[in-house]
Amino acid sequence: MREIFEYHSKIGYRFIPEVKARIIHESGGYLVQVNKSGFRCNHDFFKQKKSPYRALLFGDSYTAGNGVSNLNRYGDVLEKQIPQLEVFNFGLPGTGTDQQYIAYKEYAKDIDHDILILGVLVENIRRVNAHYRRFVNFENKVQYRAKPYFEIVNEQLVLKNQPVSKKVLNANELSGKSVDKGGRFPLLGKIAKKWNLKHTIQKYLHYQPFPEYNSCTDKWKLLSAILKEWISDSPKPVLVVPIPVYHYIEGISNACHYQNRFEELRQETGCILHDPLPTLRKYSDKEKREFRFKHDTHLTSKGHKALAESIVPKLRDLLLIKE
Amino acid sequence: MSSTNKQQAEKFFTKYLSNVLKSSPKKEFFPMQPNEKQDSYYKKRTDNFVTRDHFKCYAKEDFGGALQELWKNEHQLKDLSTHFAKLAEELKKESLDEEVSSFVYAMF
Amino acid sequence: MNELVLGISAFYHDSAAALVRGGNIIAAAQEERFTRKKHDSSFPVEAINYCLEEAFVETNELDAIVFYDNPFLSWDRALKSCMMARDPQKIFPKIANSMLGEKVWVEDYALSAMGSLGKMNKLLFAEHHISHAASAFYPSPFTESAFITLDGVGEWATTTTGFGDKNTLQFVSQIDYPHSLGLLYSAFTYYCGFKVNSGEYKLMGLAPYGEAKYKSLIYDHLIDVKADGSYRLNTEYFGYINDFVMTSDKFNKLFGGEPRKPESLITRKEMDLAASIQKVIEEIVLLIAKYTKKETGSSNLVMAGGVALNCVANGRLLREKIFDKIWIQPAAGDAGGALGAALSVTYNYFENDRVVSTTGDSQHGSYLGPAYSRNEIKAFLDFHDYPYTEVSCATEKAKKIAKAIYEEKIIGYFCGRMEFGPRALGARSILGNPLSKTTQSVMNQKIKFRESFRPFAPSVNLDKVSDFFEMECSSPYMLLVAFVKKERQLPVDTDTDDLIKIVNLARSDIPAITHVDYSARIQTVTEESKADYYQIIKEFGNLSGYEMVVNTSFNVRSEPIVCSPRDAYTCFMRTEMDLLVLENFLLWKKEQPNFDETEDWKKNYELD
Q1: How confident is the model at residue A205 (pLDDT cuts 50, 70, 90)?
Q2: From the UniProt record, which GO molecular function terms apply (chain A) (predicted)?
Q3: 3-state DSSP helix/strand/coil percent for chain A, to nearest 5?
Q4: pLDDT tens digits along C386-434
């Protein structure tokens, strides 16, 4: 299968510019098209607008659309449902909000737009606090790569690990390093999954996938500091969309903690907050289960469509676009 | 091949196929030797033009029925059709990771 | 008219996928290239993925998906063969597991791999030899043509003859299992200690070293051939009905002992056996060709099936001038079945009109696999900090490569879309100097790590082919063998069975590609078919006076031909190649950092 990412000294990596690839996946596979700037966007990033309205959309794999072809992603569905709007998709799989902010400064600052949309997967709180990220190499071996990150020093964000090291590390070389390995209890999770009990156990124990949101923890402080700086940096209105993981959508876990934190962020920054969770939870259990794949927890085409449909009214209101 | 699958196939053989083989003199499904009396060994096809019909196969849900149709003039095999279909279901789980032998041409 | 049809071959030999739109071949590739497992026969998930990637389409856009074989009829054959065996109980579990447990469920494999079965929501099945015949006829440059397909076995058929006209295929005659030229040749492959399904071309390469001493023994005992080329085997001599090997004790006794052990010394006996079976195959192919000519009246012939890869027999067929023109599917084996099945559905199922290319065939030079962009290659090289020079000017690049070849450097050449079929045709090739006496041994021992007797092939610009060889026509797919011109041949006096000594004797002024019998397996190159490669050969001609280079596949022994820049770089670093060309990036071995590998890579490749 074709490699689709390349090293980037500031962000860590990006898509290889202009790559067209099909990725083998449990869904049968999906098509990836990358623009000249190295983002999985159907448009090249022209400075001047070609449509009446333009949104810049940032996020991780949920925004980049792992598991689905370009046209099925929520950003593309937004374009379909609001024809006057073009969406520049800067989603970069596996990245934290820190890397996305770096990408914004590197590639998006001079692009004319009407609104900036930050699709913040709630899991990103863990990523912004990690200095290394797990990845699976071409031989299917798990390895780790450095990522750029911020630290708060004297109430200021200080960028670290840049230029990003190219060095690939094995698990035994990680001692003492801050690593995002995915999940709170990966080993327990694996065992529970093997016995098909994972979700039953999680529901019974009121599993909280991201306790980092429970209060104003240091980890939340870092994520919110990045978001605050990004929001204040933006010359245009910022729409923050916390994207819930399936535990929240399917009612396995209580979402109030992360919802509270993002509400505090709204109050502190004056950004526009759109929480899609209430809308997503209205669907039937069967429909909600179909928002993710059988094994892969990324959004299916149905999940993307539902997410987009929750955002559309808000976006229309903000841009004063009539239906 | 897993030992379970091997056992299933062996059991099937003993239960069904061995009886067919015992009940009649060995059937000549194809010639095993040259025949000097023949002028040519070529066989002419009756369905010689390739048409849309050549791409029909079988619905996997009705594998037994399709075998019955194929063996409509070979009664002993025809009678085993549904049993073969059942065996196919039983053996289905076996994965395709078996190595191709380097000692024999892969033909089944 | 523009139906998108995906063809799939799997489970027997080389699995592959091919995608055709309205008869135009969009993509085709063998699974082994992606999985890095030689002759991978598993369901071709990666090859299918590549084909859909090349067309950039979703599976639900496919108008039809077709499998190249009918597992239902193959089961009929396998069961009946088992029932004819001496000990059916021994055979049955194996065939039941293989056929009933796996192959009849191919539709499930397809659904699981692709997530959808396209617009038809089902799989079509083409007969094995229909797939072969279609792969030979439809991409050929002929509006009408006779066809011959020859292989080990499909469902029942092992040999077919017929006639293609515009978009139709008509079968004339057929020979059925267990009588098979492919199986006969494989029996000798096995007996001579080579792997069945992969070592057949080694047996062909060995043949010129021997004398056809066993020819009459073969005719007297193993096969009865009629005047029309039809034949029947005496199955007592073969093992494949009663056992899981190719030959029986009777066969072994006839030829004086047990089969040669793989990797043991090749003796005069194996050389003579190889020569003998080669002659027998050639003679039968000629008879079948004459019969087919008589039956069809066509002056054109197309061929496919594994036996059609026997380029020595093909060369003889050409020289005998039974047909005016011959075209052979470059992926003549099972991989090509994927392509044939897709084309057959296009013309015989959807009944599309066929437009014959006016400028040549429709195989696109068989460059039907993936290409890699500048960005992709640069990303790979930059990430690893591998030193390179980028040369964007095509002429300058060709001059640099030609100069390196002239200086007897060995070059790994990776440029454009990967070839479909077993031959490297200048997209994934190792290139060398044909004038050098050492090229053959260096390439065999230091680059390919393979048997010393195996010959190398020349790529020669078409307009110069008759300067060097007894050949006037094109051979773009390296499927024809011709002799080096008499005036270029050098007399050789040898009285030894030592293959290395025999190989190292110069037999012409182009010793690296002149086989022991003065033959060469030729690839003709034109500017239209592959401009970059043509230009390199041209520049080499400017330096040396010979518009020709040595071309062998870019791999080591038992490794599939490289597919990606990573595969190419790895192969380059594991061998003693001097220069790697990845599109416009030139990498010199002496400038590369140490290539550390934690494991012995040779263990990853089981010897073929």
Answers
A1: low
A2: hydrolase activity, acting on ester bonds
A3: 35, 20, 45
A4: 999 999 999 999 999 999 999 999 999 999 999 999 999 999 999 999 9
- Two structure tokens written together for C485: 């011109």
Query: What is the chain C residue with the closest CA to A36?
Result: C375
pLDDT tens digits for range A303-314: 999 999 999 999
**Residue C248 structural domain:** 181-326
Confidence of residue A187 (pLDDT cuts 50, 70, 90): low
Find where tokens 């440029």 sit: C415
Strand stretches in C15-106, DSSP E: 16-21, 24-30, 64-67
* Chain C residues touching residue A28 (CB < 8 angstroms): 59, 113-116
pLDDT in tens, A222-266: 999 999 999 999 999 999 999 999 999 999 999 999 999 999 999
Mark yes or no for CB contact C226/B41 under 8 Å: yes
The CB density around residue A5, as the number of other CB atoms within 10 Å, is 19
CA distance A76 to A85: 10
Classify domain A5-319 by CATH architecture: 3-Layer(aba) Sandwich (3.40)
pTM here?
0.95
Rounded distance, CA A274 to CA A92, Å? 21
Cβ of residue C379 closer than 8 Å to a chain A Cβ: yes
Nearest to A69 among C58, C382, C566 (CB): C58
Shortest CA distance from B90: residue in chain C: C101
C177, B105: Cβ pair inside 8 Å? no
3-state SS track over C241-299: CCCCCCECHHHHHHCCCCCCCCCCCCCHHHHHHHHHHHHHHHHHHHHHHHHHHHHHCCC
Residue whose structure tokens are 């092939």: C457
Contact B107 C78 (CB under 8 A): yes
Structural domains in chain C (count)? 3
> How, if at all, do strands A142-146 and A132-136 pair?
antiparallel
**pLDDT per residue as tens digits for the range C328-366:** 999 999 999 999 999 999 999 999 999 999 889 999 999
C202: domain CATH number is 3.30.420.40
Domain ranges of chain A: 5-319
Say if C50 is an interface residue toward chain A (CB within 8 Å). yes
CA atoms within 13 A on the CB side of C141: 13
Which of B48, B60, B97 comes nearest C171 by C-beta?
Answer: B48
Q: How far is C81 from chain B (nearest CA, A)?
A: 8
Shared domain for C550 and C573, answered yes or no, is yes
CA angle (C54 as vertex; C49, C59 as ends), nearest 5: 50
